[in-house]
Amino acid sequence: MLDHDSSHRHECPVARASEVIGDRWSLLIVRDAFDDIRRFSEFQKSLGVAKNILAARLKALVEVGVFEICPASDGSAYKEYVLTEKGRELFPIVVSLRQWGERFQFAPHETRSVLVDNATGQPVMRMAVQSASGETLGPADCHRIRVTPDDV
Amino acid sequence: MLDHDSSHRHECPVARASEVIGDRWSLLIVRDAFDDIRRFSEFQKSLGVAKNILAARLKALVEVGVFEICPASDGSAYKEYVLTEKGRELFPIVVSLRQWGERFQFAPHETRSVLVDNATGQPVMRMAVQSASGETLGPADCHRIRVTPDDV
DNA sequence: TAGACTGGTTGCAATCTGCAACCTGCTTGG
DNA sequence: CCAAGCAGGTTGCAGATTGCAACCAGTCTA
């Protein structure tokens, strides 16, 4: 399976995140989970993915702690896949992908779906990288530094 | 190759974005581009990816308009792969992945890299989904609606 | 209690990936 | 200006991954 050998892990956090949700299906599974999909068969129906692939992905996502398996909320003996805190924190990633897709991968006339604030019905704000003081930063306004925590 | 047949495109913007950068390498190529990598051999060295795969990915990314091919900035006859506006707008996606990776995919003691504001040296603000009025929104605070632009 | 549904597993064919070898057009040292 | 080497690929092939279909064991329900 996705054998991202953890013995020589990447130092880059982007690469590590990509190991978890960087394949063809995992991200879409998480997206569906944000849309309150929880059951194996619901994921399969929504995504149209092969059952063996879905089973493998869900298993991997449970192993890394993005999902947890819970007893079904309808009282039956079946189980549900529910996002953990770690999984719910993927929300900004999914939304930034959504916003980019909306802007650049749709023709102007195409039907699409947009994300709106429950409270106001307004579309959510476009996500941006911000400085500590709240200014929007572009790629050229930032740089990476290496940090070695030495807090014994 | 990545045959995401455009005859039955997804309506979901997340899926459309995922078609572009949802594979094992494309996202990391873009990440490197934000780190000022431009040449084929530099990408190859940085990523350790097979040359045929890199060539295929760069070609696809040029075709969808994320990169453009420019003459080399050093005056040689070689070319460079430079992010377009569309490509630069992937920045929030890469940063949100980075921040999630930093928080959840590193042990506390591990060396990692973090993104800081050039101007202040401070780490950039954690990205969040915000309402039009600036409040942070969680997954439960939003919902999707379908929009069919009917502007003639 | 039979039949359908849930949540998978297994086998196999087709596709995709990555390695290595090769190739062509620049570029540079002598 | 010529040979050697580098940049930027392409091609062939073996192995890994994907997806389809068939099958199967529990669970539910009429």
TrEMBL record, chains A, B:
Pfam families (alphabetical): HxlR (PF01638)
What organism does this protein naturally occur in? Pseudomonas graminis
Q: Which residues form the HTH hxlR-type domain?
A: 12-109
| Protein name in the entry | HxlR family transcriptional regulator
Keywords assigned by UniProt?
DNA-binding, Transcription, Transcription regulation
Which InterPro entries does the UniProt record give?
HTH_HxlR, WH-like_DNA-bd_sf, WH_DNA-bd_sf
List membrane-spanning regions: none
Q: Which GO terms describe its molecular function?
A: DNA binding
What lineage does UniProt assign to this protein's organism?
A: Bacteria, Pseudomonadati, Pseudomonadota, Gammaproteobacteria, Pseudomonadales
